[in-house]
Amino acid sequence: MTTRSGTRERKDEPNVPLPALLTQAKDIAIERLHQRLADEGFEGIRYVHGSVFRFIDAEGSRLTMLAERSGLTKQAIGELVGELEDHGYVERAADAGDRRAKIIRLTDQGKMAQVAAARILTDIEQRWSRHLGGDQVALLRRALEEVIALESG
């Protein structure tokens, strides 16, 4: 099976680099997330739309802020916002503080999708806990948090 990142699963190969294993685990979880979102009626949400859903403020965000937070260009974020707008997950509204600017806000449907995604990701983690044991998943979480802190600082 080929994952979203283009890597092939290598269950039997020794010494697969840890970052590759992390990528495979992430890809599988995200594929399950999007399948379950679609199963629940949240059609059209793709992996890249996380660049909006993950970084949008509860009261809405400007396009420039979404681009900055996600690391994507304003043009790329604008296209993603347009796609999500076409599917009814976000809307653009005038910024009360600057009439030239637009605020991107989640619609009720977008908020429901965001809540569903959080629940589904929790379900995935709970499945891992049932299979591996809660202590193992807690240890994995702490280790990953430490790696992120180490590499971010």
Low-confidence stretches: none
Overall mean pLDDT: 92
Number of DSSP E strands: 3
Tally the helices: what do you get? 6
| Straight-line N-to-C gap | 35 Å
Order of adjacent strands in the largest pleated sheet: 1-3-2
- Main sheet attributes: strand count, strand direction, barrel closure: 3 strands, antiparallel
Rg measurement, Å: 18 Å
Shape designation: globular
Proportion of helical residues: 55-70%
Q: Give the helix/strand class.
A: mainly alpha
**What is the chain-wise order of helices and strands?**
HHEHHEEHH
Strand-residue proportion: 5-15%
Keywords:
11% strand; 153 residues; single chain; 3-stranded antiparallel sheet; mainly alpha; globular; 3 strands
How do the helices and strands line up, and which of them pair or pack?
Elements: H1 18-39, H2 50-53, E1 61-62, H3 63-70, H4 74-86, E2 90-95, E3 98-106, H5 108-132, H6 134-152
Antiparallel strand pairs: 1-3, 2-3
Helix pairs in contact: 1-5, 3-4, 5-6
Structure write-up:
The protein has 153 residues and is mainly alpha-helical. 59% of the residues lie in helices and 11% in strands. It has 6 helices and 3 strands; from the N terminus they run H-H-E-H-H-E-E-H-H. A hairpin with a 2-residue loop joins strand 2 (90-95) and strand 3. Helix 1 (18-39) crosses helix 5 (108-132).
Give a short synopsis of this structure.
The protein is mostly helical.
